[in-house]
Amino acid sequence: SAVVFVSSNIFFKKIMPSNAKGVPQTSAQKLDKLNLLFYSSSMAFLVMTPIWMFSDLPALMSASDHVSHPTKGHSSPHSVLYYFLLNGTVNFGQNIIAFVILASTSPVTYSIASLFKRVAVICIAIVWFNQSVHPIQGAGICMTFVGLWMYNNAKADVEKGEKKMRRVEAARDLVLPSTREELRAMHGSEFNS
To answer: What is the pLDDT of residues 36-85, one digit of tens each?
Structure first.
């Protein structure tokens, strides 16, 4: 699942239109986010429909008890069609937001943000449903947070190194600063004047 998710992020990042200056737009890059979502959802629908028809459709069409909606705790239960439409609408919104975020970040950053979202959903579900956490589950959640913290620190260190490298290259090339920000970067310090 994780390999497919990351691969799709990289694929969509490669074919997604970029707004970078100086990058010529080819015909392959003219698909916008809605078209990408339409084509990828259509392909997923075509691939998954036979599997769904074989595994879930017979159970849905039968009048068995395991498909019916539970009435306990619900004053007016909604139909299955209502939940299909609600799920589809929310999933569509989530996919549009995902494409917007993926267009402005790298696939690795997007995957890390998605991982954090999954862990947050799991933690909220544990609190919401008042479930006990097995020690192995707790260790996994803690390892995820430690990994996210380490990634954030590593990314900050890389950015510091890149700034220092730009400062060294500017000093070597005898480039004069044109803005206060460039002046601060060249001196490696923050001063107000």
So the answer is: 778 777 888 888 889 888 888 887 777 555 555 555 655 656 777 888 88
Q: Based on the number of CB atoms within 10 Å of its own CB, is 129 exposed (0-12), middle (13-18) or buried (19 or more)? A: exposed
Q: For residue 127, give the nearest of 143, 141, 146, 115 by alpha carbon.
A: 141
Q: Which two tokens stand for residue 39?
A: 């084509």
Overall residue count recorded for the chain in this entry: 193
Distance CA 68, CA 9 (A): 36
DSSP 169-189: HHHHTTPPPSSHHHHHHHHTS
Q: Two tokens at 151? A: 């990634």
State both tokens at 51.
């599997």
